[in-house]
Specification:
alpha+beta; Peptide Deformylase; 4 helices
Length: 186
């Protein structure tokens, strides 16, 4: 089932998500499937629980659509991250353009560390402790930030933020033209 994606300005996007009690959480496999379906419908490569109105520590990532001869390591990189915790961040800050399904029409260069270490449960509730670098680390950090109520526009330079302020205000008032189902803060 395709879920509505919550747009910038909705309060749920600024809340710190809580851990999922995997023993009692209703229909967790169905939620993961719905999140992937919603993400694909919106042409995204990542989607976090708060973006579909949940205050739960879950996000999904699939880099397969970006796999090509230059990036063969994206092939097969499809994961669900439950109760994730980034335990290490290091490396040079890399400035790369990002977008977000919750901030449609806006793309900005965002500084992020080049390497992370993350612990999480996968969709089968298996524990993982893994390291990622490069674009993998970037996408994971972007989605992880949503779990802490942080959006990529919070990380851009003050001057860039001033330049997009009118667009951001428009989003909070429901001014968006998306090809996917959205929920705005009204």
């Amino acid at each position: 089932m395709i879920l509505p994606i919550y747009i910038f300005g909705h309060p749920v996007l600024r809340k710190v998500a809580r851990d999922i009690d995997t023993a009692t959480y209703p229909n967790l496999p169905e939620l993961i499937q719905n999140m992937f379906e919603t993400m694909y419908n919106a042409d995204g490569v990542g989607l976090a629980g708060p973006q579909v109105g949940l205050e739960d520590r879950i996000f999904v990532v699939d880099l397969e659509p970006l796999a090509d001869d230059e990036h063969p390591d994206f092939k097969g990189f499809k994961k669900a991250f439950i109760n994730a915790r980034i335990t290490e961040r290091d490396g040079d800050l890399e400035l790369v353009e990002e977008g977000c399904l919750s901030i449609p029409g806006i793309h900005e260069k965002v500084p992020r560390e080049g390497r992370i270490r993350i612990t999480y449960l996968d969709e089968n509730l298996q524990e993982h402790d893994e390291e990622y670098t490069g674009y993998h680390a970037r996408v994971i950090q972007h989605e992880y930030d949503h779990l802490d109520g942080v959006m990529f526009v919070d990380k851009i330079s003050p001057i860039r933020k001033r330049l997009i302020k009118t667009k951001l205000i428009g989003l909070t008032k429901g001014k968006t033209d998306c090809h996917y189902k959205v929920k705005v803060a009204r």
